[in-house]
Chromosome partition protein Smc (Thermanaeromonas toyohensis ToBE), 180 residues
Amino acid sequence: MLLKSLEIQGFKTFVDRIKLEFGPGITCIVGPNGSGKSNIVDAIAWVLGEQSARALRGSRMEDVIFAGSEKRRPVGLAEVTLVLDNTDGTLPLPYPEIAITRRLMRSGESEYKLNKIPCRLRDIQELLMDTGAGREKFSFIGQGRLEEILTAHPEERRLLLEEVAGITRSRWRKEQVLKR
Ligand code: ATP
Ligand code: MG
């Protein structure tokens, strides 16, 4: 599963529509402080279903909608579309490309779409389950989190790695069996 492109409009600093195309391999985003690098990561987390405004560095979900600047008036709607390459079939849908869209109106009304067809948040959450991009989001390592991992005790780091590798559940099961 690869990120192919990201379209952002009205989300945080991105008032006008922008489209980022990601090539194969590693993508780096560079720019001055406050230029919107982290906002791009927030847009990816948001379109994948993030429900915590705090995780998106705001206090209310409405904070993701462009709030205006010296030159531009605020807008009433944020929309992000992430296109994933699914030619390897990681996502259980029979399409080589999957576009996930999320919109939020200032009125609080929100909308999710899969390949342009309206769906529920649950459909997106279910689609991403067990891919590492879903609810637990180990695919996002924030600035503070990196330091936390590097300075953690070996035992704590091991727990984290086990969680990422998806073996926490089997370890827990094994412990239950040994207890008997
Ligand atoms: P750094 O290098 O410091 O990490 P960055 O490039 O990651 O910077 P971001 O955190 O992505 O920068 O962007 C921060 C900017 O986004 C701030 O100037 C903030 O005012 C602006 N911003 C955040 N939310 C909104 C919003 N809803 N409307 C307009 N601007 C916003
Ligand atoms: Mg940043």
The chain has a mean pLDDT of 90. The first helix runs from residue 37 to 47.
